[in-house]
Specification:
The protein is mainly alpha-helical and 510 residues long. The protein has a single domain (10-501), classed as Glycosyltransferase (Alpha/alpha barrel), CATH 1.50.10.10. It is built from 18 helices and seven strands. Strands 1-2-3 form a three-stranded antiparallel sheet. α9 (250-264) packs parallel to α11, α11 packs across α12 (315-326) and α11 (295-309) packs parallel to α13. The longest helix has 21 residues, at 120-140. The protein is globular. Residues 1-34 have low confidence and may be disordered.
Length: 510
């Protein structure tokens, strides 16, 4: 086994919860911390540009990440279908459907909640990033009774350090069906298509209707044929240990139904949530959110309808969302997450920035719902205002952008100091335009081992980030710290959009 056979990438860990939140009264009494001024517009633009470097398939004429070329143009051919396009999840060359669908959902939620804060050109770029994913996801659900959930053998892929343009490892196709169910990946795909349908409702109504129609069909498939895709021996060999279903498929069914309710306003999905919530674990109130566990995000999403639509049967979701936020308040009785000395939320396991971006997004989305309905977070004797949640999100995002003990940005290309040795094959190897000759599987080893910076800066990529002591060594081999992922950036797009319009979050509500 080679030293770069990274069988346990950052995707191995699902997001966990809470982090330090100053009490409301103290926050109102203190000024904003002294910190550098950040160019949130620049960071937003780069966070969206990142997705172009992750593209698979035939690249468009307006491709801006010019170090990339066409790749995986025969994906799906082994089963006679077209599965070209979509995204590589991280620094490898596999198309994992579960995190890709979650990425799409979060990109869409970012635009739905905070798209009005985006400059027009960046909103268009964000929509293009979403459409690159949904065009692919539509292909995965275009054959009755089957949902294609992955392309690429991860074992052979992770045994190579190879550009996607040169990829010659097995492009194995994995799928779920009635007799090998995958409700989590199908449910998340339904959520992604439904959320994306809202993004395109005004600009491309026909495409929006197509997305919503497919979302309903794939949700019906997920609900009719219940089961976890990593329980199937054939699928497990491909999806584990990378994107196993560690937490069950039930939350994805509720998550898919919640997005279909929001996108369609169809009462049947409200009925589904009301009738199946307890059976599907809504009362578990698990304080996690990420590609594998949707509970905290689900509670925030559904609580919007209770607060703004006064659907009283959904009150428990608001209570659970409050409970999640209260775990961030030190005076509450809830346990609190580990923090680095510099103040960054920290969850052991790798790809820590996925926790930071997803929780920051939830803080801002929930603050928006609370503000619109003139409500606060009820933590017993403590009432936490929306402005308090916004300030805590700002602290996390600003740490990521450079307000940290290392005095470096963890986004490639942002600021004066940022990671140079990112764990990413295409970024570290010479581009196809500068080195058109084929680079075979093992021929990239010297580039992997090289102490030199990556040859192609992957602008906008956010790495896994520092350890619990705030230290970051900028080591390409340490993938837990140095590998970017699409699901780190997806919720970050929404958070940065908010701060473009509200750079002094906590003082001004818009």
């Amino acid at each position: 086994m080679n030293h770069y056979l990274d069988l346990f990438p950052p995707s191995f860990v699902a997001i966990m919860t809470p982090f330090f939140l100053l009490p409301l009264l103290l926050l109102l009494a203190l000024p904003l911390p002294l910190a550098r001024s950040h160019d949130y517009h620049d960071a937003l633009a780069k966070s969206i540009l990142f997705f172009e470097g992750q593209r698979s398939g035939k690249l468009p004429a307006d491709q801006r990440a010019e170090w990339r070329g066409d790749s995986a143009l025969s994906d799906g051919s082994e089963v006679g279908v077209d599965l070209t396009g979509g995204y590589y999840d991280a620094g490898d060359n596999v198309k994992f459907g579960f995190p890709m669908a979650f990425t799409t959902t979060m990109l869409s939620w970012s635009v739905i909640e905070f798209g009005d804060y985006m400059p027009a050109d960046e909103r268009r770029n964000a929509a293009a990033a979403i459409r690159w994913a949904t065009d692919y996801l539509l292909k995965t659900v275009s054959h009755p009774g089957v949902v294609f959930v992955q392309v690429g053998n991860p074992i052979s892929d992770h045994n190579c350090w190879e550009r996607p343009e040169d990829m010659d490892t097995a492009r194995t196709v994995y799928y779920v069906s009635a007799d090998r169910p995958g409700s989590e990946v199908a449910g998340e795909t339904a959520a992604a298509l439904a959320a994306a349908s809202m993004v395109f409702r005004q600009t491309d109504p026909a495409y929006s209707r197509k997305l919503l129609k497919k979302a309903m069909r794939v949700f019906e498939f997920a609900d009719t044929h219940k089961g976890a895709y990593s329980d199937d021996p054939g699928l497990k060999a491909g999806v584990c240990p990378f994107y196993c279903d560690f937490d069950g498929y039930q939350d994805e069914l509720l998550w898919g139904a919640a997005w279909l309710r929001r996108a369609s306003r169809n009462d049947s999905f409200l009925d589904y949530i009301q009738n199946n919530g307890k059976t599907l674990g809504a009362d578990d109130n698990i304080n996690e959110f990420g590609w594998d566990n949707k509970h905290a995000g689900l509670n925030v999403l559904i609580s919007k309808e209770f607060m703004e639509g006064q659907v009283l049967s959904l009150e428990s979701y608001k209570e659970f969302a409050d409970s999640f936020m209260c775990t961030l308040v030190p005076e509450s009785s809830s346990s609190h997450i580990q923090f680095t000395p510099g103040g960054l939320i920290y969850k052991p396991g790798g790809s820590n920035m996925q926790h930071v971006t997803s929780i920051s997004f939830l803080l801002l989305a929930y603050a928006k719902y609370l503000s619109k309905s003139s409500q606060t977070v009820n933590c017993g004797s403590i009432q936490v205002a929306p402005s308090s949640l916004q300030l805590q999100a700002k602290k996390q995002i600003d740490y990521m952008l450079g307000d940290n003990p290392m005095n470096m940005s963890y986004m490639v290309g942002y600021g004066d100091r940022y990671p140079q040795r990112v764990h990413h094959r295409g970024s570290s190897l010479p581009s196809i335009s500068s080195h058109p000759r084929f680079i075979a599987c093992k021929d990239g080893t010297d580039y992997y081992r090289s102490p030199n910076p990556n040859l192609n800066p992957h602008v906008g990529a956010v790495v896994g980030g520092p350890a619990d002591d705030d230290l970051y060594e900028d080591d390409r081999a340490d993938f837990r710290k140095s590998e970017p992922t699409t699901y780190i950036n997806a919720p970050l797009v929404g958070a940065l959009a908010f701060f473009v319009a509200n750079p002094n979050a906590g003082l001004v509500l818009r």
